[in-house]
Amino acid sequence: MRLTDAIQARAGEPYHTFEFFPPRTPEGLANLLDRIQRLTSAPLSPPIAVSVTWGAGGSTATRSLELAAEIAKLELARGKLQIILHLTCTNMGKKMVDEALKKCKELGVQNILALRGDPPRKEEYRPAPGPDTSLLGGQDMEGLEPEEEEQEFEFAEDLVRYIDREWKGWFCVGVAGYPTPHVDSDTPESDIHFLAQKVHAGAHFIITQLFYDVDGFVEWVKRVRAAGIDVPIIPGIMPIQNYASFRRLTNLCKCPVPEHVLSDLDSIKADDAAVKRYGIELSTSMINKIIAAGVGISGVHFCTLNLEKSVRRILENLRWTLDHKSDHARQARNRAIEQGH
Ligand code: FAD
């Protein structure tokens, strides 16, 4: 199923997606599959999709496709749980892209998040950010061989156009959006201009880079809509797991952190459990605020970092559980009436 059809089927009711990166070992894979099984089971509302990250240059190609294949095998996946494969195009030849897409079709993976990835800077790639992370441009250099083949793709837009042309609409394609402009963008306007180009090239949905400034995000959504971009936008939410990783990851992806969050964290930063609790409360209140903002956002994309507890608590706090399903349907109807739909 296409992600956009799954979103439409929710008719404004809240939905979520989870992002996972491919573990390096068979034990890691088995543990992650257990977590995915638990996170996609009652009493939690099931996610509409699970996404699998891709190391820039295809460095995790085998493991990413293996993880997608294992998720596709889960009982839950049949017909209900969609898979989104992230696919970067920088330093990836056409052959590698074709192989990945062919494999996706064999697995029934119909959703691709088409990304540029981060190109080599001078002779070196940017340093890897530690654990595989993707919203952050995470890279894993294992097995990476520079491609001899001529570069076919420069920007994500080239990959979107290529998938649309070569696969004749079979894939539902998403692209990345940046509530704080991408570091390579000259201005916020040019950032939105190139986002619009990606949508014109054939993208069907947008998943955003993580952010902690909800007002800034809401303003960005309004500017994106004013630019004529009308595809679903799914905000990227990363629960804070511990202070050091939060600061490292937000620095890496140039995600500004509001002053009030920094000062709240300052007094508890040495206490990992307190930071985690704070992260759960912060994500919960951010999501409530985003949905209440009246800009047509009803779902979120959790950057899980392959961890289970925080997202589980956030879903419980939000009451995104099966026993509250009818409340959500009623609230979605009320929101639609308030917003004049
Ligand atoms: P693009 O859309 O190509 O944009 C890159 C820059 O170029 C922007 O400044 C843009 O404004 C500009 N630009 C775009 N088109 C043009 C054009 N035609 N002419 C001139 N300038 C242009 N990285 C990974 O390696 N693996 C992952 O799995 C991964 N997952 C991600 C998931 C999400 C939700 C997000 C937000 C990011 C993810 N990333 C991942 C990181 C991403 O690869 C980097 O942020 C990368 O630097 C940019 O990718 P992009 O697709 O946004 O690039």
UniProtKB/TrEMBL annotation:
- Keywords from the named record: FAD, Flavoprotein, NADP, Oxidoreductase
Biological process (GO) annotations? methionine biosynthetic process; tetrahydrofolate interconversion
Cofactor dependency: FAD
Entry superkingdom: Eukaryota
Quote the cellular component terms of the Gene Ontology held in the record.
cytosol
Which pathway features in its UniProt record? Answer: One-carbon metabolism; tetrahydrofolate interconversion
**Which parts of the sequence are annotated with region: Disordered?**
118-139
GO MF term list:
FAD binding; methylenetetrahydrofolate reductase [NAD(P)H] activity
Q: Does the keyword Aminoacyl-tRNA synthetase apply?
A: no
Tell me where the transmembrane regions lie: none
Q: Which family does the similarity line name?
A: Belongs to the methylenetetrahydrofolate reductase family.
Name under which the protein is recorded: MTHFR SAM-binding regulatory domain-containing protein
Could you read off the lineage of the organism from its UniProt record? Eukaryota, Fungi, Dikarya, Basidiomycota, Agaricomycotina
Query: Which residues of the complete protein does this chain represent?
Result: 2 to 342 of 678
